[in-house]
Structures are given as C-alpha cells and as structure tokens.
Design a protein that fits this description.
With about 280 residues, the protein is mostly beta strands. It is built from one helix and 18 strands. The protein has one helix at about 30; strands at about 40-50, 60-70, 75-80, 85-95, 100-105, 110-120, 125-130, 135-145, 150-160, 165-170, 175-185, 190-195, 205-210, 215-225, 230-235, 240-250, 255-265, 265-279. A hairpin with a 4-residue loop joins strand 7 and strand 8 (about 135-145). The longest helix is centred in the first third of the chain and has 4 residues, at about 30.
Length: about 280
C-alpha cells in the first residue's frame, strides 16, 4: 500500500528504508508516487524559525539525493547536513529480476556500517536479515503469505534466534481494511493496528489499540487528485485533535511536486524544495 503517512517504527512494523519497498511488483517510482522517467532527485529541507529577524524565516537543515535506474528503482540515496557534511549513504543491490537483495549502509568515511539482506520465494519476499558490517546478524524477519500471496504473518527474531515479536495480518474482502495484531514474548497481545485504504490504495485511516483493546491514537489522511497527502490529522484517544498538518505543493509539467510546504496547527513548519532530473 502506498503513501503511508504514519509508519510504526518498531521491531514489528513493515520496515521501510531509503528508496526501497516491500511491494516487489512495483518499482520505486510507483511506490513513491513519482511520474515519468526520473533519474535523480535533489532535495533541500528547510525548517521555519519565527525568531529569525529576516523576511525569509526558512533555515536549511538537510540535503537529500536519490538516484534511480532506467527501470524506476532507486540505486543510491544519501543525506547531507546544511554544511554539506555527509551523514550517510545507502546503496541498493538488485538481482536479475529487479528484486532488492541487499542494502549497504555507508558511514561518512565510506565504510559500510550495516547491511540488510533479502530472500525470496517466487515473487514474495520471505526473509530480511539485519547485519553488522562483518555480516553478523542482529535480527531477522520472516514473512508468511496465504494462497493468494497476501501477507499473513511477519515474525521477528533476535540474534540468538529467540522470538522478538509476531505480527498477524487480517483483511476485509475488499482489502481496503487491514488489521495487524502484534504479539511479543509468550504470544501475549501487545497492540492492534487498523489501517484503512481507499480504492487507490492510499492510506486514509490508521488506528492503534493497546493490549486491552482501548484506542491509543488515530490518524486520518486526505489526498489530492495526484495522490499527494494534503491533510494529516492525529487524534487523541478521546477524539480531540493532537496535531493537524496541511501540505501545499507546486508541481512541474510532468506532475511531480517541486515544492512542499508543511503547516502544523496553522503555522509554517517546514519546506522541501526539489530538483528533478529525467532520463
């Protein structure tokens, strides 16, 4: 499912990483809602500082670079700070079927600090291995599918092989609602997530429940006709709004956005400017 706004970044989540996706039947450009034959994206991210005594109150914080091959998959990504110091660089390696099989995480000095390895059975990703630079594993994720090749379970193991967590997936008939039960330790239910999608596979609702079945928080997303998020609302458990973000865009002639401005609770928060190079 594309355009996920709120990703559960815990060991039981469907893990996302720079310029890669679990959706092996789609290329990265499709997963990232990019149109045309994109070759390179250069991004500059600015944060709004109302205390600056200038007319332009946006301060440069980060620079990001994404390089794509002719098939629409990301080959490399990197992040630099406002002083142009390299923070990290990610290299993606694919097999002859265009499936992601390895991700190398490079430190600023060029050395590899971590690696991710992936295994497949036909078109399905069945395993992800997190490794240190010396290839020693510190975690493993195993994916199980039903007869329709839909994800049913995601099991995470510690380095010693002990169970860390298990996520069990349930879907409605239309596959527009996804329920994820997360178990830890001795199969005790830790939390439940309910994700709702529209007919374009955009995530329009996200709810998190604790082990007792009590709602912790809820999100909702609204999209424009190009599939870009224009409103994100984070609700408290009592239904009150904890945070609301509004996104405004400027587009190129292909239909990809070149400028994205974020407003949080009605106030400017940050701005991202893009330069896109096409094949």
């Amino acid at each position: 499912m594309n355009n996920t706004i709120r990703v559960v970044i815990l060991f039981f989540s469907v893990v996302l990483y720079s310029c890669s996706s679990n959706e092996e039947t789609k290329n990265d450009l499709i997963n990232e809602n990019l149109l045309g034959k994109v070759k390179l994206i250069e991004e500059k991210e600015y944060f709004y500082d109302e205390n600056i005594a200038l007319s332009n109150k946006y301060v440069l914080e980060w620079k990001r670079f994404y390089k794509y091959d002719v098939r629409g998959n990301c080959e490399e990504s990197s992040t630099r700070d406002s002083s142009d110091n390299l923070w990290h660089r990610v290299i993606n390696v694919r097999d002859s079927n265009d499936r992601l099989i390895q991700v190398n995480w490079h430190a600023p000095d060029g050395s590899i600090k971590a690696k991710d390895y992936f295994k497949y059975e036909k078109e399905n990703r069945i395993e992800k291995l997190w490794c240190y630079a010396d290839d020693s594993a510190y975690a493993k994720e195993v994916y199980k599918y039903n007869d329709d090749n839909v994800l049913e379970e995601m099991i995470t193991y510690n380095a010693d092989g002990s169970l860390k967590s298990k996520s069990v997936y349930f879907y409605d008939e239309s596959e527009q609602e996804e329920v994820v039960d997360v178990f830890v330790g001795n199969d005790s239910l830790q939390s439940k997530f309910i994700n709702k999608y529209d007919d374009k596979e955009n995530l329009i609702g996200y709810s998190k429940y604790n082990s007792a079945g009590v709602l912790d928080s809820r999100d909702s997303n609204k999209y424009d006709d190009k599939g870009n998020v224009i409103v994100w609302i984070w609700f408290n458990s009592d239904g009150s709004i904890h945070m609301k973000e509004i996104y405004k865009y400027e587009f190129d002639k292909i239909g990809n956005w070149l400028k994205k401005v974020t407003y949080e609770n009605g106030k400017p928060k940050k701005m991202i400017e893009r330069k896109i190079t096409y094949y």
